Amino acid sequence: MLRLLCKSKPTSLSSYSPHYTCSTTQHSSTHLSVPQITPNSFTPSGFPLNSPNPLKTSTGFRFFHQYGRKSQFYAYENPVNRVFLPGCSLNWRNVGNWKGNGVGFMSVRSLVGGVTRGFCSESDREVMSYDVVIVGAGPAGLSAAIRLKQLCREKDVDLSVCVVEKGAEVGTHILSGNVFEPRALDELLPQWKQEGAPIDVPVSSDKFWFLTKDRAISFPSPFDNKGNYVISLSQLVRWLGEKAEELGVEVYPGFAASEILYDADDKVIGIATNDMGIAKDGSRRDNFQRGVELKGKSNYFLYMRVEAIGMLSGRNGFKSHTCASNYMHSPGRLTLLGEGCRGSLSEKMIKRYNLREKVQGQHQTYALGIKEVWEVDASKHEPGFVLHTLGWPLDNKTYGGSFLYHMKDRQVSIGLVVALNYHNPFLNPYEEFQKLKHHPAINRLLEGGTVLQYGARTLNEGGFQTSVQMIRLQIQGGRHYANINAMLVKFQSIPYPVFPGGAIIGCSAGFLNVPKIKGTHTAMKSGMLAAEAAFDVLHGGLNMDAYWNNLKNSWIWEELYRARNYRPAFEYGLFPGLALSGLERYIFKGRFPVTLRHGKPDHEATDEAHLHSPIQYPKPDGTVSFDVPTSLYRSNTNHEHDQPPHLRLRDQSIPEHVNLPKYGGPESRYCPARVYEYVADDNGQLKLHINAQNCLHCKACDIKDPKQNIEWTVPEGGGGPGYSIM
């Protein structure tokens, strides 16, 4: 299915039906003559006939050769380019043996153009091969793709690059504030102004308010937005996608990467998209389409791995045995994961390869951003006006704040960011956002306006962290005191971003600059650095670990080091946080001698319900504040209803037996799309009902659930929100 979208049909193994022949050769060490092998057939039982010849079938061939009581296994190593063509002879080499009587068979697994393929596999998925596969058409993924193709042109090298995106179109799943710092774009595409980038509104005014319920107190702005622009990130990403395609990148929106593919040595060799047309009950609907495997390929040598997976019969009965040859990994086959915050595949890589532990990293911490884009009266519109606030409507123990940016065409983006380590299980971020819009200083701008779009997304706030020697500081803010734990040796919540066969880029790793409230420029730069390392791997034979060194030597690292103490400063409350962040910015200028550390992971920070009182939120007025169904309609969210739920409970009993009685059912409140509801059954018992079709792909449930019982997985490709101006 995916191949039909290609501008030029890529080479894949499924395009060929070769006739395999093997020429006689002599092993250099054992001097055993291997007789010529020609195709033959298998018996119905699955065992080879009494012959040393292999079987050629529609899915591959098996071979076995026996010298008396010693069975020899041979693999080949043959220099061919990308595909194994008909008539190519193989140079066999001895790789192992079985001792004893018996008969058996072996399966052959090969690396054809860098793609691990089991010729005897049951899989019927289409296979497409690329030098680099990138997951996620966001700022990081597209910047990586563009930079790779730029390097190809500079060095006169031809590398194939593919970007797969779960959104129906490039940009439809992209949401951000966004006051854009063009530093990375200046490096990537210096002529972006002349080339028509949708970056038109420079920041003209930069305000910072502290809100109480009825007042807005102005403070000096800690943000330096001179030279920055108010943009729609979804529109910028769409433009970046066009630039990538102009350079020869193949971009495939509407296909969700659901599975990581590995070779026999646990190295990542690509991804697979999920099957489409699966019904809720697991059956195949009429429109069923098998997923596609997107794998790396090699331009150098073809290697074959031989494994014995069959059985031996002899005096001691049947025995299974495995014997494998050693082979080199070619320089090809790289996968870059740029899925955004809390990427599902990225999280699997971090856990599988212990990437946080590799750098002694602490857990990541997150926030949830909820946003609307309004069209306001022309008399109230000030293009380039930027406002940030702290304080109301959040309580003094909850970190967060709001933003209000004037875009072009009378459009204003307004949003609330709430740190997900909040304690009160009755807090509802969506309802807090509705309250915000009724503040007198904000309400006057929105009155008479119209909401154009709504959305939500989580963001990383971890950054640098610390370990080793603990010290204690006491910070005073007004009448408030706080004892603050700090450590003298730095490390980061950012995981080691390199895994065997690829790397994690952008917000999947977590490069947000918290005091700037910006992560687009750092995400783009990380993608560019990963692309440069990947090019050196593919073209120069270097190691992908260079990406980590590139990061640490870049301006990303300098930024994040200076910003490292702002987010954990608010771990101890609003006023101590303000005091310490002010000290960090104006006195130490990001060089405070110690590094503060985060508290508990966000899901562990939730208090039990009996420690708090339920919050009574006002009903929406339908003019400035709205109910969830109305907002969902404005997000253009759509999923195929008849498909397996992509929001999965690891333990079906936890919602009713733990979350509801102990925490008051917080999933019904932290989700900004009312995906989770407790509904009474026929016996009056409350049961959790999951409205998966409402999902905005914000990932809050995957982060905040107290028992980490909810697993967010990708739905059918193309499902989810349909942002166009976010």
UniProtKB/TrEMBL annotation:
<keyword id="KW-0560">Oxidoreductase</keyword>
<protein>
    <recommendedName>
        <fullName>Electron transfer flavoprotein-ubiquinone oxidoreductase, mitochondrial</fullName>
        <ecNumber>1.5.5.1</ecNumber>
    </recommendedName>
</protein>
<dbReference type="GO" id="GO:0046872">
    <property type="term" value="F:metal ion binding"/>
</dbReference>
<keyword id="KW-0496">Mitochondrion</keyword>
<dbReference type="GO" id="GO:0051536">
    <property type="term" value="F:iron-sulfur cluster binding"/>
</dbReference>
<keyword id="KW-0249">Electron transport</keyword>
<keyword id="KW-0472">Membrane</keyword>
<dbReference type="Pfam" id="PF21162">
    <property type="entry name" value="ETFQO_UQ-bd"/>
</dbReference>
<keyword id="KW-0408">Iron</keyword>
<keyword id="KW-0274">FAD</keyword>
<keyword id="KW-0411">Iron-sulfur</keyword>
<keyword id="KW-0809">Transit peptide</keyword>
<dbReference type="InterPro" id="IPR049398">
    <property type="entry name" value="ETF-QO/FixC_UQ-bd"/>
</dbReference>
<keyword id="KW-0999">Mitochondrion inner membrane</keyword>
<feature type="domain" description="ETF-QO/FixX C-terminal">
    <location>
        <begin position="622"/>
        <end position="724"/>
    </location>
</feature>
<dbReference type="GO" id="GO:0004174">
    <property type="term" value="F:electron-transferring-flavoprotein dehydrogenase activity"/>
</dbReference>
<dbReference type="Pfam" id="PF05187">
    <property type="entry name" value="Fer4_ETF_QO"/>
</dbReference>
<dbReference type="InterPro" id="IPR036188">
    <property type="entry name" value="FAD/NAD-bd_sf"/>
</dbReference>
<dbReference type="InterPro" id="IPR007859">
    <property type="entry name" value="ETF-QO/FixX_C"/>
</dbReference>
<keyword id="KW-0285">Flavoprotein</keyword>
<dbReference type="Pfam" id="PF13450">
    <property type="entry name" value="NAD_binding_8"/>
</dbReference>
<dbReference type="InterPro" id="IPR040156">
    <property type="entry name" value="ETF-QO"/>
</dbReference>
<keyword id="KW-0479">Metal-binding</keyword>
<keyword id="KW-0830">Ubiquinone</keyword>
<feature type="domain" description="ETF-QO/FixC ubiquinone-binding">
    <location>
        <begin position="366"/>
        <end position="459"/>
    </location>
</feature>
<keyword id="KW-0813">Transport</keyword>
<comment type="similarity">
    <text>Belongs to the ETF-QO/FixC family.</text>
</comment>
<dbReference type="GO" id="GO:0005743">
    <property type="term" value="C:mitochondrial inner membrane"/>
</dbReference>
